Amino acid sequence: MQLQPHHRTALLYFGFALAAAAFVLSLLPLGLKSALHTTGSLHPLFHLALFFTLGVLAWVSTTQGRVRLLLLAGAVLLGLSIEYSEKVRFQIALEVYDIVTDTCGVALGAVAGWLLDRKAG
Q: Is 0.90 topped by the overall pTM?
């Protein structure tokens, strides 16, 4: 079943809301982030899951190739901006591993979105 345009638009808005929420949550005080379990051993898994989801949403929310590339690049830039913002706000080293994990998540999500579109079409 092919997604209808209004469903794609809804997914696009959901992706924007998810990205905004991720950015805001990343700037919470460290103690609160620990209480929410966004630090520690599950931290890389959260990054991968979030950016995988953003990659899927970027792919399935439009049928236009250029828009898809822009959305995927935006998801990667979100990961970079989150890490840089945390570096500045918390005076910590830039977490390059998180940036790599975010980028891999977006790429894997794009592949999953492509597979979903292919199966539906």
A: yes
